[in-house]
Each structure stands twice: as structure tokens, then as C-alpha cells.
Design brief:
Helix 4 runs parallel beside helix 7, helix 5 crosses helix 6 and helix 7 packs across helix 8. The mean pLDDT is 88. Helices cover 72% and strands 0% of the residues. By secondary structure, it is mostly helical.
């Protein structure tokens, strides 16, 4: 096995173990054993468990970001919302291990940040779309950031729930998410007010 092939093998083994057991419960010994190598080989490639984990997380974050932003191929804003929701759910379905790693808390901060920063990156893409839609409706475009965070958060949290539930089917979950978001967005009030205000 070449050095590059060994590195990829260790990343695959680490990804599988981190998804299955979590960062804390996974040991260098276990990674080496499952890969059929000695511990020094893992240290040689990644400097330790933290280094391996950071590379795994960075790869997953980039894969998810690429998938979501690549899915935003244009069209009506509702279609863009559908594309984004479906892209996340497809990632969860096809890359379950990767998503488990991303949403699990870890003491290691990867070079790309964490799941929260990834969601911020995705929300920035959505904000651009919403700002154009708000402008065309005469709404305050500076609120597009707030709405994009709300939408991405709704989809991501639902995705975490669906990771375990797996019912209803993926496309149905995406349709319901878009139904809630779009029917809410299509009837936005320009200056919403709370009906009840709290006493201070």
C-alpha cells in the first residue's frame, strides 16, 4: 500500500469508528487494529487521534457544503429551498456516518470550524437568495440573514431528528419542510409584531 493509500484507509477506518463510537470512546489502538497497522503508523500520518479526527471532520464539512451549494442550481426561490432541503437529507441518507460525526460534540476544533460554522456557511448562500426575494417584495433586505439562519436551522434540526427516525421517507420530509417554510415565507408580514408583549 502506498503512503497515500494508507492515509485514505486510515481516514476511512477513523470515520467509521468516530461515527460508531464517538471521539472520546475511539482509541488509537482500535484505529490501528482495525486498519491492520501498528500505532506508530497512525501517528506518522496524523500525529494522533486529534489530527485524524480533524481531517475527517474537515472532509465531511466540505462534502456537505459542496453538496448543498451545488444543489442550488437556480430557478424559483421555492425550488431553491427544495434543492437545499433535499441536498441535506440526501447527504444524511447516503453519508450517515459523516453526518453523525458532524453533529456529535467534540473537544477538537477542525481547521474548518464545527457544524455550527458549517450551517453559517450554508445560511450565507441562502441569505443571498432571500435578499433578492425580499428586495423584489419591498421588504427590509437586512433581515434576510435572520430568515436564512431560521430556515437552515429548521432543516438541520429536522435532519438530526430524521437521522434516527427515518420516517417518513426522505422526499416527503423535504416536501413538509418546504411546505412549512414556503407557505410561511409567501405570507410574510413586512413588519411583524407580537400579539402579546411581556411585562418587564
Amino acid at each position: 500500500m502506498t503512503g497515500k493509500e494508507r492515509r485514505e484507509q486510515l481516514l476511512d477506518v477513523g470515520r467509521s469508528l468516530f461515527a460508531e463510537r464517538g471521539f472520546e470512546a475511539t482509541s488509537i489502538e482500535e484505529i490501528a487494529s482495525r486498519a491492520g497497522v501498528s500505532k506508530p503508523v497512525v501517528y506518522e500520518h496524523f500525529g494522533g487521534k486529534e489530527g485524524l479526527y480533524a481531517v475527517v471532520v474537515d472532509r465531511e464539512m466540505q462534502a456537505l457544503l459542496d453538496r448543498v451549494t451545488g444543489a442550488l442550481t437556480g430557478g424559483h426561490p421555492k425550488e431553491l429551498l427544495e434543492q437545499a432541503a433535499l441536498a441535506l437529507l440526501v447527504y444524511i441518507e447516503e453519508q450517515t456516518d459523516g453526518f453523525r460525526i458532524l453533529v456529535r460534540d467534540s473537544p477538537v476544533v477542525s481547521t474548518g470550524g464545527n457544524f455550527s460554522s458549517l450551517l453559517n456557511d450554508i445560511a450565507s448562500q441562502v441569505e443571498y437568495v432571500l435578499a433578492a426575494e425580499f428586495k423584489s417584495r419591498g421588504f427590509e433586505t437586512k433581515l434576510a440573514g435572520l430568515y436564512s439562519q431560521a430556515l437552515v436551522g429548521m432543516v438541520a434540526l429536522t435532519g438530526q431528528w430524521w437521522l434516527e427516525a427515518r420516517k417518513p421517507k426522505r422526499d416527503e420530509v423535504a416536501a413538509h419542510l418546504v411546505n412549512l417554510a414556503w407557505n410561511g415565507l409567501s405570507h410574510l408580514e413586512a413588519k411583524p409584531r407580537l400579539a402579546v408583549t411581556q411585562k418587564r
